[in-house]
Automatic annotation (TrEMBL), chain A:
Pfam families: AASDHPPT_N, ACPS. The lineage of its organism: Eukaryota, Viridiplantae, Streptophyta, Embryophyta, Tracheophyta. Coiled coil: none annotated. SUPFAM superfamilies: 4'-phosphopantetheinyl transferase. Residues 45-133 form the 4'-phosphopantetheinyl transferase N-terminal domain. This is holo-[acyl-carrier-protein] synthase.
Automatic annotation (TrEMBL), chain B:
The keyword Lipid metabolism applies. InterPro entries: ACP, ACP-like_sf, ACP_chloroplastic, PKS_PP-bd, PP-bd_ACP, Ppantetheine_attach_site. It comes from the Eukaryota. SMART domains: PKS_PP. Pfam families: PP-binding. This is Acyl carrier protein. Belongs to the acyl carrier protein (ACP) family. SUPFAM superfamilies: ACP-like. Carrier of the growing fatty acid chain in fatty acid biosynthesis. The keyword Lipid biosynthesis applies. Residues 56-131 form the Carrier domain. Keywords: Chloroplast, Fatty acid biosynthesis, Fatty acid metabolism, Lipid biosynthesis, Lipid metabolism, Phosphopantetheine, Phosphoprotein, Plastid, Transit peptide.
Amino acid sequence: MKLHCFERTFFHSSSSLTPIQLPSPMETHLWYVKPSEVKSGSLLNQYLDILPPCERENVLQMRGEELRKSALLARALVRTTIARYQINSHSNPRSLKFRKNLHGKPEVQWQFRDDQHPPPLHFNISHTTSLVACGVTTNAQIGIDVEEKHRSIKHNILSFARRYFSKHEVQFLAAISDPQVQRMEFIKLWTLKEAYVKALGKGFSGAPFKTFTIRFKGVMEGGFITLEDLSPKASEIVVDSFDDPADLTSNWQFSLLELANSHYAAICTEKHGAGSGKRNAPGKLTVWKTVPFLEDECVSGTAAVKIICGVQ
Amino acid sequence: MASFTASHVSFSAVPCSFKQNQVSNSRIASLSFSGKGFSSRKLPVLRFRVACAAKPETVNKVIEIVKKQLALPEDRDVSGESTFATLGADSLDTVEIVMGLEEEFGISVEEESAQSIATVQDAADLIEKLLEK
């Protein structure tokens, strides 16, 4: 048990961030903010203040106050989160630089003379207007996606799935008779697929959704078990990729959670040292709810984090 | 950024260029001819697009579909220049919008093309390109 988790809530004077150690190789950190809980105008100005001009401009270009707020919180969250890890003693969220990889995936541009050995921190963010999240790993690619549980889908679920999902996944969804349950399983599946594509970092077209199947080990062929039926410890989420045999399913591990009773969150991370056929212990996940500069609360093991599948 | 070509100037797709707020947009470069043979008055600010900009009907249909998908208020100003991102479309919205466009126009959009759509105009241009085939 990590020491800082015993003290659930930290209060700080403004502009301070609790420093924290990088997650161990088998561990993932997840930080999230709920925009509705950030009401202070001066705090929002503080966030605006740590952004470089181009990021500030992007935030202000968003059409609508809610969108501007969640865009601002997304940038503030990623900067303050990474700053907490004080890589090479750098602790100022303002001084971080970001760039995009070849396929458009954001990454930190570390400012060191010796660029041969960039720090092993990896991150990925996802946001809706009602929740913003940032996942952090060490030495492992990561992709995350969050969606509102009650998000409405404008199209017929099965038409959408037939167009974009794999055959196996369509069968899985088609077997669900209750439309509400079907919609929620669809959203869970969507977040898992998004998280995988984001972890790969090749962009939406780099791994078209139709070319891989995400399934839950333990589900009978053609049958259906909702994720609620699966015991989190006994089951596993796996990916089968048709297009890229080099992209082995054993390379990736997934977690699926319900956050703050309102959102599904999927996390996909690279697995290391996975021997073929060896059953790997699920990774450890630590979750914080935060209002950067103001308050952090470790919510792992509380009602705010319901693990549906995949991790301890 | 706007791109310029002497060969095709489309006015029809961008009636909003003449609005006050567009003129002040720093992204639009102004063209003015001065010197011999031309009067010294400045030409109005124009947006030029490379040949084959989509018809206004197509752009308007895209706007309609986008507004519906994102549940935007009727008075929200959406134009060809609007980017999906700034309107608040996330990846699932974008995919739903593309699917809506496929159904409306009877086309099929590949992932590579879908990924390159940033603005309403991009979507309209892509639709017309696919319809030409």
